[in-house]
Amino acid sequence: MTADLRLRRARGALGFCFLAQGVAFALLVTRIPAIQDRYRISDALLPAFLAAVPVLAGAGSVAAGRLVRSVGAAAVLRWSQPLVLLSLLGVGAGRTLGHAAAALAVFGLAVGALDASMNMLGVSLQHAYGRSIMLGFHAVYSLGGIAGASAAWAAAHWQLGLPATYLAAAAVLLPGILAAGPLHTGGRPGPPEPAGTPQDAPGRGGFRPLLPLCLVMTCAYIGDSTVSNWSAKYVQDVLGGSEQLATLPYNLYMATTLAGRAVGDLGVRRFGAAAVVRAGTVLAAGGFAVVAAAPGPWAGMAGFTLLGLGLCVIVPQTFAAADRLYPQSSDAAVARLNIFNYAGFLIGSPLVGALGDAWSHRGAMLVPAALVLVTLLYARSFGPSGALYGVPHEQPRVGDVGRGRDRL
């Protein structure tokens, strides 16, 4: 098998894994009311259940960072993704509150390991290609999220129970995941790293240069969780939209996220990662400003559309920047950075809710706007303008994922 064919197959296999993860996560979060009804979880207890998932996902990401040192990122991906689907099935098929708690705990740990290992393999493949491809992986994840949300709507509409819904999802996705497993690979690129690139591992005193990217990741997910948790309520209660209209903002946000990521790699190749991230940051902040000042629901939805186009580029490029910052230990850097995904998710919704109650819901939308603008202060962390690595590209050569540490 030629090197180019091996890389293309690895890219396709990883793309399917991003798609499957988008479907699985959407099937969980969009059926939370049904899960609450099945297990009779009180409104007071539900937030604790929901908060436990990202907390455990952070722990799973840390564990993945340790595991890849001995077994490699591909091995972590191969066991964690089937475990995500099986635990999702457990969430739908359990009978007691204890069953739900155990299944959600496994889901959280597995999701953290899966998110970390997928992005490790993604930055490794990008490194091998010598050009931006990370946004494409996250575009496929967004497509999976839309597909999963649509499947959840159909299941609810046709009154299909949770066990049947999740069993159908596992039956469709699991064969593809198992088939993709042996194809996961990556490589080391030909181009050398820019002069002055820190080579020390984050776990050995070199963690400090990663902190700006951790802050950017947190702020981006505060913005994302604000849209996920508050867009429907904001359009209906603040902007006076109907209940039916209130279902549109998140769909528009997801659609523009998909569109932005689908073309984002072309922008990175043409203008450089830093320029694309700056443009995305300004668009996202502007979207929040439009939402805050919107006179009616349609103007508010235009703001959420801008948000999707802006926020969508920041997270994938943050992972890519960690790879450039720590070329010899990118697995550890990606695992640590991934923790702040869940930190932002945990902070965002309660922060905006508390500010809305204490101040105003319109004013609360300006806070994530200001936090997203922090990204502009650290735009240089995303690399020089022009070529992905700031140097002419050479032909990639295939090696092991994780810079020679993955055992295929």
TrEMBL record:
Transmembrane segments: 12-32, 44-64, 76-94, 100-121, 133-154, 160-180, 271-292, 298-322, 334-353
InterPro entries membership: MFS, MFS_trans_sf, MFS_Transporter
Primary localisation category: membrane
Membrane topology of the entry: Multi-pass membrane protein
Signal peptide stretch: none
Lineage: superkingdom: Bacteria
UniProt entry keywords in alphabetical sequence: Membrane, Transmembrane, Transmembrane helix
Location of the protein in the cell: Membrane
Pfam family for this entry, one: MFS_1
Protein name according to UniProt: MFS transporter
Organism this protein belongs to: Streptomyces toxytricini (Actinomyces toxytricini)
